[in-house]
Design brief:
Immunoglobulin-like; 5-stranded antiparallel β-sheet; 5 domains
């Protein structure tokens, strides 16, 4: 913005002559010179006439006389009256009869200066200033104007106008400054009867990119992602001078116990246009969780982030060590690891049975769910189990961390299984006891044959009975799966001592099982 425009916004005007009077040392030709003024209050680019020096008058400080044909920059001198007026205008406080413009820093108000400088930024960085416009009068006042005019500056949250403010009432607003090109910037912040000058500078700098060739623009927050504790992740940062100037690589350093620079960094190197360099940052988490550090590039620092996690537990493969897929067997669930365990942990194995209720189908440790320990270096875990006495499908599932494995085995229906057979003889009675299991729970037909000492069948020969209803009633109330104990008594007419042994055949829906001859 030109100062004359600023004067107009301030409600003031330039001298009536429309030009500023100045003096300068004459050239060797002795004529007055015409220059371009760059003083505050002098319109930049507007011509003005320098009055010739009177003979014998000294040149302005710092100017020189020239040889023939020479030229020299010179310092124009604004007449003192005009300079005093200009200084008073430029330094007028940011206030009006009804409003005060305040700068808010850390929640504390202070008078807004006539010129507020956002300081020096780099391309695409931004700075924010918070202001407060307060009605200092004793009556309601209306705010009709609140604007920022200038490239790179803008109101971040424009207020809907007009707006009325009660006495001592105020509105807060913020102005941001950001620009992509280097140079000096200025803008006017205007409100009712108030105007201040906003200034800012964008300085040249080197261009940084992360992980070429498709690297994203940098600097800024740099996240290394999730890394296993003790492992490392690297990010390569390239430096490129994309300006027409010679720029020096600033001091480069990294802070944070989990972050470090790898190798030599190009700090202090002078880079001409299109020249570049690079450096690498390593993230090595020593603990778990979100870890933070910072990267310093000269006068700027940027956050470094990374998440440390424990090494994963191994992935399981489930195998079954079972000689025969049948009832009343003992086996082992083998959990093989895909790699030696790196850390301590636990896994869980569960057993599900699809069939009739049978509490004997379980792990040897008890129950159908067990937790097993994992120690560093372990390659597998072995978990014994038993198949019970019921036909059906047993499914084993192993869970370690987020990985799982599964294996199933089918226990087929089978003829009755006999565990023991006993015979007891007493006066007039023969007692037979048989323990076993029926994994179909359909046991019914029984056959008994008795023999004398010579091995001959004793009349009447094979004695047959159907115990289906008895066994069905028993299995319906038993909590022992397919296990049973049969006790049968036979009255004897004659000499019971002549009975030496017996044989039995038991039949269910899957077949018949003969019991070897058992002696009394």
């Amino acid at each position: 913005m030109r100062p004359n425009e600023l004067l107009q916004k301030l409600g003031r005007s330039a001298p009536a002559s429309g030009r500023w009077q100045a003096e300068a040392c004459p050239t060797n030709a002795g004529r007055g010179v015409v220059g371009r003024a760059i003083l505050p209050g002098v319109p930049s680019g507007d011509a003005f006439q320098a009055a010739p020096s009177r003979k014998g008058r000294a040149c302005a400080p710092g100017t020189r006389r020239l040889k023939a044909g020479g030229s020299q920059d010179w310092l124009p001198h604004v007449h003192s009256a005009a300079a005093s007026l200009l200084l008073a205008l430029l330094l007028a406080p940011a206030a009006h009869a009804q409003f005060d413009l305040l700068l808010v820093v850390g929640g504390v108000e202070q008078a807004a200066p006539a010129v507020y400088d956002f300081g020096s930024l780099y391309a695409d960085e931004s700075a924010l200033a918070h202001f407060r416009l307060r009605n200092t009068s004793s009556a309601v006042a209306t705010v009709n104007v609140l604007t920022v005019a200038g490239v790179g500056f803008k109101l971040t949250s424009p207020t809907a106008l007009p707006v009325g403010l009660a006495p001592q009432g105020a509105i807060d607003f913020a102005v941001s400054f950001s620009a992509a090109d280097t140079g000096a910037y200025s803008a006017a912040l205007d409100s009712d009867g108030i105007a201040i000058l906003l200034t800012g500078t964008v300085a040249p700098r080197l261009t940084y990119r992360v992980d070429p060739p498709y690297g994203t623009a940098f600097p800024g927050p740099l996240d290394f992602g999730i890394v296993v504790r003790g492992a490392a992740a690297q990010r390569l940062i390239t430096i490129q001078n994309e300006t027409t100037l010679i720029l020096t690589v600033p001091a480069i350093s990294v802070q944070g116990t989990d972050f470090a620079l790898l190798g030599t960094v190009p700090s202090g190197q002078a880079l001409g246009p299109r020249q570049g360099g690079e450096f690498t940052i390593v993230f090595t988490p020593h603990s778990t969780g979100v870890l933070q550090g910072s990267l310093t590039l000269g006068d700027r620092s940027y956050p470094l982030l990374g998440t440390g996690t424990d090494p994963p537990l191994p992935k399981p493969t489930v195998l079954l060590d079972l000689n025969q897929a049948a009832s009343a067997q003992q086996g082992a669930l083998i959990v093989r690891f895909d790699a030696p365990a790196q850390i301590s942990g636990t896994g869980t194995a569960t057993l599900d049975f699809h069939g009739p209720a049978d509490s004997a189908i379980a792990f040897a440790a008890g129950g159908r769910s067990v937790t097993f320990p994992i120690a560093p270096g372990d390659l597998q875990a072995v978990l014994p189990f038993q198949t019970g006495t019921s036909a059906g499908v047993i499914t084993f599932t192993v869970q370690i961390g987020g990985s799982s494995g599964q294996q199933s085995v089918t226990i087929a229906a089978a003829p009755p299984g006999i565990t023991t057979a006993q015979a007891v003889r007493s006066t007039g009675t023969l007692a037979v006891s048989i323990t076993g299991f029926d994994n179909t729970r359909s046991l019914g037909a029984l056959t008994f044959t008795f023999y004398d000492a010579a091995g001959n069948p004793i009349a009447p020969g094979a004695i047959r009975t159907d115990a289906t209803a008895n066994f069905a009633q028993y299995f319906a109330t038993s909590g022992l799966g397919g296990v049973f104990l049969l006790r049968a008594e036979f009255p004897v007419t004659g000499n019971a001592a002549m009975v030496a042994s017996f044989e039995t055949t038991m039949t269910n829906s899957a077949g018949s099982t003969p019991i070897q001859r058992t002696s009394f």
